[in-house]
Amino acid sequence: MTLFKIAFTNVRKNFGQFSMYLGSLILSVLIYFTFVSLAYNKSIGIIFKKWGLGGQSVFVAASIVLIIFVAFFIFYSSNYFTRSRKRELGLYSLLGLRKAQIGRIIFYENLMMHVMAVVAGVLIGIFFSKFFSMLLFRIMGLSIPSGFTFSIAAIGSTVFVFAIILIVTSANGYWIVYRHSMIELFKADVREKNPPKGSLTLSILGIFLIGSGYFLATRSIDDSIFWTENTFFASMLFVLFGVILGTWLLLRFLFPYIVYKLFQRKSFFYSGTNILTVTWLRYRMKKTAGTLTMIAILSATTLTAIGALSSLYTNIISYAESSNPDSYETVWSTETQRKAIFTAIRESKGHDLIYHEKADVYDANVIDKVDKNEPYSHHRMTYFSVISISDYNRLAMKLDNNSKKIKSLGDEEAIFLSPNGSLENSKRKNILTKKPYMLQFKNNSKQYKVKIKDIYNHTVLNADIASSVLVVNDALYSEIAQKTMPTHIDIFQVTNEDKAEALDHKIQAITGEPNSWWSTNMSSFYSNYHMMSTLVGVILYIGVFISIVFFAATGSIIYFKQITEAVDEKPRFAVLQKMGMSQKEVRAVVAKQVLPVFLIPLILGISHSVAAMIGMSLNLMFSVSAPVIISTTIYTVFFIIYYFICVETYTKMVSSEND
């Protein structure tokens, strides 16, 4: 019998044993191929070129990161899977096969697994390409027909990447065979002769490290002495490594300490099947500390990535809408241009002119000195676009978007219109409203003293035409207007502005303004909104893909660890079942044993993620609560489902009914 035939027969007869490893490979191929296919998708390339965003380079950079994570995921799965078969490899050696021949068998098995995974993953990826592209377009806020994606370049890239991974995993298999003697291969993992009792002192140290990391992570970077220019890098390293080390100390010393105390409580220890669970945990917690730490950190990374990116997406999309209240704004349009815009709107399909308004805005610089030594978040505004209370109320009434009406303002009072006002924290608001501003207008020698009375979380003019809008009373506005040159703005509000691509092109041609960020002569809701939603949508989409790999890696680590332990624990459960333990009791014992492997890292992962998100919310000044709650809930639900799958698989493996 040839070595390839031995490998083929082994895979065929033990396909159930290989199935989970094959499943993890297929998932990896599916994720990578789908992602790379989108990078080569012509429709997406056209979108990026249209908005001038250079998104293809973002996909290329992200694909490199994805390769690293996928390679780690597969390598870890392969390593666990090969180590769980040490006895089988030892049997080959006993039958007279040389180590080189055993290594070739492992290579042939890996080759078959990878070929099946690449074929299945690519076929599934092609089948679901329409769904994934539709999902991306949905996140980007675009309505574009998408079909099945079949890219030769994507297939070639997938084959190349997984061929490299095949070589690495096979080399690792060779290393395991060459590293161990035949006797060592036959040995099962030896339990600790003296089970750990834990350490309260080291547990307290772990809690201190995690607490210190949380404390630093939730401080304001601008205010805290720990986040100065000289200490920033050191603080960041302390947070990262302090939390990881603290997590390991908790898992290595606190939980063995708790289990030891439960062991000493005889009333608990001898109750029901607790004697089995507690004994198992005493002899396993020390060896699983590193694995549980990795699961906790992966869970925290996954939750933080999804929470941060979904929060970023939600807040930027909200800002894109609030900062562009008008469909179109043009600056100093000629009468010819204005008539051409009216004609373009009238001739467009699906768009009607709701209203046309005009407003004069005066740009002012703040002459107050700014202390450059102060943190940036403490800096006050340096310029404003000033409009009158009459113009504001007129435009606010036209918009009909729940804008507040201003009843009156004093001669030195003003209202600041901030489209990101809902993102400003109370401390920032106090900085903006604490002291009056001295305003200086171009070609106007007089200075005007104005104090911000309140901040409204909306604006009536698009932010790229008039940013930092300040509303003053009509008397002060008239005085400014007598000595200052205004910026004259024409406002065109149309129906279905979010689907006005064709109309957008016509108006851009009329005004001579291309798609660009922060144009000074023409502002379009459609262009501004879709440029923002496209860029942040791609970032969110990439983050979701990488997070899926993180979750798959977490699940793979847990599953293969449980499979390895199930093989070692099968003789013990066989004895217990011969003594009369029922199938239901076996399942209950397994559920208790497996629960800490899922529950402890999940709780720690959520805790680490929440601390990271609180710090992010504090420093970036945007709300994260809703996206974090949703992403954490979804992650937890999938984790619970995975727990029940592992319990079911473990129970079947140790049950004597399967013999």
Automatic annotation (TrEMBL):
Pfam families xref list: FtsX
Q: Where in the cell is it found?
A: Cell membrane
Q: Which InterPro entries does the record associate with it?
A: ABC-4_Integral_Memb_Prot (IPR052536), ABC3_permease_C (IPR003838), ABC_permease_BceB-typ (IPR027022)
Sequence intervals crossing the membrane: 21-40, 60-81, 102-128, 148-177, 198-217, 237-260, 292-313, 538-560, 594-614, 620-645
Task: Tell me which residues make up the ABC3 transporter permease C-terminal domain.
Answer: 61-171, 545-647
- Per the similarity annotation, which family is this? Belongs to the ABC-4 integral membrane protein family.
Membrane topology note: Multi-pass membrane protein
Descriptive protein name: ABC transporter permease
Listed A to Z, the keywords are: Cell membrane, Membrane, Transmembrane, Transmembrane helix, Transport
